[in-house]
Amino acid sequence: MPLLARGQSKAEAGKSARKWLNEVELGDRVDHRAGELSGGEQQRVSLARALVTEPKLLLADEPTGDLDSGTADVVFGLIERLHKSQHLTSIIVTHNMALARRCSRVLRLEKGRVEELSPQQV
After folding, report:
1. How does pLDDT run across 37-84, given as a tens digit for each residue?
2. For the purposes of burial, counting CB atoms within 10 Å of the CB of 31, is it exposed (0-12), middle (13-18) or buried (19 or more)?
3. Residue 70 is part of which domain span?
4. CATH of the domain at 72
5. By the 8 A CB rule, do 80 and 89 touch?
6. Residue 107 pLDDT more than 90?
């Protein structure tokens, strides 16, 4: 949809969508509806949809919030890989400290103040 809104043809948009579904390891699920996908698969589709326009900045608000720890680890690993391979600046909001520890920089909003945490504090 984002590419169609930008004026790309349906064929071009479909080709890009398939490319990104393959990037998030869902190329075999291209013909499935959202209700046929697991929560982790739906999060990966959301990631593909966010990246199909090839942005320089990825904003992710609780991308693993509704997932079990194993699936959250897979989704976050995918975000890490795409962050590096696509040269993204990524801002991720999470309450999951295990995932926050995997980030290169952690900021915490506490009582209206922003503070940077050292790796030992996370």
Report:
1. 998 899 889 989 999 999 999 999 999 888 888 888 888 999 999 899
2. exposed
3. 2-121
4. 3.40.50.300
5. no
6. yes
- Angle 10-23/39-51 helices, nearest 10 degrees? 130
String of DSSP letters for 60-106: EESTTTTS-HHHHHHHHHHHHHHHHHTT-EEEEE-S-HHHHTTSS-E
* Count of structural domains, the chain: 1
The larger pLDDT score, comparing residue 119 to residue 43, is at 43
- Do 107 and 117 form a contact (C-beta atoms < 8 A)? yes
Say if residue 112's pLDDT is above 90.
yes
Phi-psi region of 112 (alpha: psi -120 to 50; beta: other; left: phi over 0): left
